[in-house]
Amino acid sequence: MADQPTPIDRDGPWDDMPSAGDLSIARQMRVKVISPSSAAFDGPAASVVAPAHDGEVGILYGHAPMVVLLGTGELRIHTIDGDTRFRVSRGFMQVVDNEISVLAEEVEPIEG
Amino acid sequence: MAKSRDVYRRMKSVDNTKKITRTMEMVSTAKLRQAQRRVIEARPYSAQLNDVIGRLATPALAELAPLLRQPDRIETAAVVLLTSNRGLCGAFNANLIRTATKLLADLEEQGTQTEFHVYGNKGISYFRFRGIEMDLQRNDLPDRAGTEDAKSVIDDLARRFVEGQLDAAYVVFAEFRNMVSTPPAVRQVLPVAVEEKSGSQPFYILDPSAEEILSQLVPLYITNSTFSAMLETAAAEHAARRTAMKSATDNAEEFLNNLRRTYNRARQAEITNQIAEIIGGADALDG
After folding, report:
1. What are the sequence ranges of the domains in chain B?
2. CB spacing of B207 vs A90 below 8 angstroms
3. pTM for the full model?
4. Chain B contact for A36, CB < 8 A?
5. Which residues from chain A sit within 8 angstroms of residue B41, using beta carbons?
6. Thinking of the domain A13-110, which architecture would CATH place it in?
């Protein structure tokens, strides 16, 4: 992501972005994780860390619209109830209007 | 005398058939429920994939991505026909075969070179019997197909499409609208028909470039359109079999009722006959 500057709307929702530690006051985004055969996850989350093709990318509330190609790796979804993790490969992530859709050919939940 | 026993034997046989068809109906109902769930669960992925490709694809990009090439004239086309491996599902396979035959005839009329890929025992044996040549015959697709199976169907065609040896690929499948409506349908998998999104577009950060994302996404898209056709066909097969077995069970029931009536009449006639004989015998002794 380094070579592409993120346009930040200073008057937008960035002003009240929570500190990384406290999830309970974080604004929630809607996150969907979908594989060809089923939806693996659908619910609110405070932040998402996804394995992009060239390294991990983290998404918080108020992120600009984005389409990013994913590589193989671990997708972490931070929710109020704790973290959910998936192993994903061959897919992409779309972020628009605080809705995150992760589509991947292979999605496997990681236990624990 | 022997008539009532004949009818009785017949009733037994119809009753056995009815048991079989009813069991098959129940098995199909259970399988249908699973297959239907799979169709529904696969829908969000297709919808999302269509959405993103629609947003990214522009005519300018279509020039760059070989998989998005739009041939001016379709010189060679492949027709992929999906049929079931098993029968007893009414007109299900016959409808698919008719649709495929018509598509082939239409293409040939336009002067297109066609090649014909047939999946499923029912389609294969039909065309073998008719002496129609098939370029590929396969009956090894599992009941619960995965994306790997869809890949094995379409990957080779996609490769030849990119190389320019093939200009179009059509999949003839059964559309699963609901439990009772499963009409045959044709889906054009190649060239990819991109529906462009109109209206205001949010500014997207793309990582990597749109071309690179598309070159990864379009193969997923092609596999997925094949995959969803396979899922729908599987669900439609069970729906068709359930309907066929239900009407077979109903017919057996009706047949059985008629036979029961005949049997009772025959039995009654026998008894009347016997009474008449006894009375006749007693009369003869008295007289």
Report:
1. 22-243
2. no
3. 0.83
4. yes
5. 37-39
6. Sandwich (2.60)
